[in-house]
Specification:
This protein has helices at residues 50-55, 65-83, 127-141, 149-158, 167-176, 183-195, 254-272, 278-292, 349-354, 407-421, 425-439, and strands at residues 93-96, 100-103, 202-211, 227-233, 239-247, 297-305, 310-316, 320-326, 338-342, 379-384, 390-394, 446-455. The protein is an alpha+beta fold and 459 residues long. The strands form three sheets. The protein has a five-stranded antiparallel β-sheet. Strands 4-5-6-7-10 form a five-stranded antiparallel β-sheet, with helices on one face. A hairpin with a 3-residue loop joins strand 1 (93-96) and strand 2. The radius of gyration is 25 Å and the shape is globular.
């Protein structure tokens, strides 16, 4: 059946038009630029666009999106071979619950309103097609429609952990990798890593580094560092670790009191109960901070790493958790040997604005949820681990952004360099992140706790 394709990009009208086959008797009014009118007629029914398929029709569950992407990459490769590069817009990516993926590819028309037949083309997707794929993927899982690429990347950054884990790694690989052999081959190493699970029991060993920051130091060694971190292994082999980032009052050091009170309460509870429900833990930490200081509060990220290969994460504020995982089958000699993705969202004023509007600006560091004076919003998620993983918990000083550089790229670059140097990756990564924070200006306390995941030894 004939069906017009819905809105394309850059202000192009909802229906893409092809030049009328018959000449128009009366020419249009003279203009300086003459543009042919184009109409596209589809020779088959179009499936719903990806956002509609996920949000309205339920043909894909958000949590299962990543597992279905390898089939999409094969379909996109076929579209690039058949139609040519530059054939994708956000609405090109479609899905049907029975038929699966569909790519509505738009040919690049010439000024005569047509395009010539051709043989196999280079399947390397150009920037335009890559951007369209990223926007379509984020649009499918976002709370509101995605406006553009900048909007998509912003939502990936602040809502990680609430989106399918690893979606940020998928999108950044789409934008940055050479993909010379096509999407299906180029994305395969990452998908293998995303799906990897521990074949048996795992072990966990934690390493920690922390520094005040030269511009943060006020000459009080006892109170300048408002970060606190620690780890404890239980009798069952379960490892618990946490990073707290104190938020001070008017320079009164209450942030340090808050973070230390939270850590002390965490250790106390870890020793008493190995399976404390997240809500009860959050309530107890909040109460402990309230007893320690009436003004101070703390951001927090806590992890419980179990021998069965699962990790439970609780976070509030702007502390972060990331997973760094080795790639087993690099696609080329230029391939970095690691991938990384964020596991926790941000609870900031900027994040709250971004939920509603793509025009959100500022307030990146203004916390709206934290521990102390009554817990606000907090998140809980469970992730699967595998031997070789590096689970990072860090204060925002250790994850400070660099201009136009995703922090996941920072992690994979550092892990690759440390691995090549022969140093043990986990303790070296913790130290490197703290050193990096000082090199970027030393504006904040920086704490990095890296948990190295290995195979459990018998006995």
């Amino acid at each position: 059946m004939d069906e017009p394709m819905e809105s394309a990009v850059d202000g192009v009208e909802d229906t893409v038009r092809e030049r009328e086959a018959e000449a128009v008797d009366e020419p249009a009014e003279f203009t300086a630029v003459a543009v042919p009118e184009i109409t596209v007629r589809w020779n088959q029914e179009l499936a719903p666009v990806l956002r509609e398929a996920v949000v309205e029709h339920g043909s894909l569950e958000p949590g299962g999106l990543l597992a279905e992407l390898p089939a999409l990459w094969r379909t996109v490769d076929a579209a690039l071979e058949r139609v040519g590069p530059g054939c994708l817009v956000t609405e090109s990516v479609r899905h049907d619950s029975y038929e699966g993926w569909q790519v509505a590819a738009l040919p690049r028309y010439d000024l005569e309103g047509g395009f010539g037949p051709h043989g196999r083309r280079d399947v390397v997707p150009p920037p335009r097609d890559r951007r369209a794929l990223v926007q379509a993927l984020v649009d499918a899982v976002a709370e509101r429609p995605c406006l553009d690429l900048r909007d998509a990347l912003g939502m990936l950054e602040v809502f990680a952990g609430t989106y399918p884990p690893g979606l940020d790694a998928v999108c950044h690989r789409l934008l940055a990798h050479d993909l010379r052999q096509g999407l299906a081959v180029g994305m395969a190493p990452l998908h293998e890593a995303l799906e990897r699970r521990a074949p048996g029991r795992i072990s966990a060993t934690c390493y920690q580094e922390s520094a005040v920051g030269s511009r943060k130091a006020k000459g009080d060694p006892a109170m300048d560092n408002e970060d606190s971190a620690g780890a404890l292994r239980g009798a069952s082999g379960t490892m618990r670790c946490a990073v707290f980032d104190g938020v001070t009052g008017a320079g009164d050091g209450s942030g340090a009191l808050a973070s230390r009170a939270a850590l002390e309460q965490s250790v106390r509870r870890w020793r008493m109960d190995e399976d404390l429900p997240p809500q009860q833990l959050v309530d107890e930490l909040d109460a402990a901070i309230g007893r320690a200081t009436p003004q101070g509060s703390s951001a927090a990220v806590l992890a419980t790493v179990r021998p069965d290969g699962t990790a439970s994460l609780v976070s509030a504020g702007d502390t972060e958790a990331w997973l760094v995982r080795p790639l087993r089958h690099p696609a080329s000699s230029r391939e970095l040997p690691y991938a990384a993705w964020k596991l926790t969202p941000a609870h900031t004023g900027y994040a709250e604005r971004l939920r509603i509007t793509p025009d959100a600006e500022g307030e990146e560091s203004a916390l709206v949820n934290y521990l102390g004076n009554g817990p606000g919003r907090w998140t809980h998620t469970t992730v699967a681990l595998a031997p070789g993983d590096l689970l990072l918990l860090a204060s925002d000083g250790a994850t400070e952004a660099e201009r136009d550089r995703w922090f996941g790229t920072v992690l994979t670059d550092l892990a690759a360099q440390l691995d090549a140097s022969g140093r043990p990756p986990a303790p070296a990564l913790a130290a490197a992140l703290v050193q990096r924070a000082e090199a970027l200006g030393g504006w904040d306390n920086a704490t990095a706790l890296v948990c190295a995941i290995g195979e459990a030894k018998d006995g």
